[in-house]
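Pasting as-is:
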Amino acid sequence: MSAKSALRKFTFFLEICAEFLHKTYRPSHSHNHAMTIQFPVVGVVGAGAMGRGIAQMMAQAGSQVRLLDAQPGMAQRAHDAIVEQWHRQVSKNRMDA
């Protein structure tokens, strides 16, 4: 299976999952009126700047993240960049280890 058809299949799967989640989960409202939903596992398609940022924020929120990209090696490079960013934040005392 080519990377393109794998991404198409995965995108279709995500659309079905999104529809299911929309019908199943009702967000709770926190004290600051932000809607919060906890997702134990999150899939992010695309490991560019936006996908990497989404993956990082979801991981920091406590979700397990599956990062996929059609370009070989891109997901691993994004993972390495996220880890490097975390190390920088810890070294500047902006984030706990």
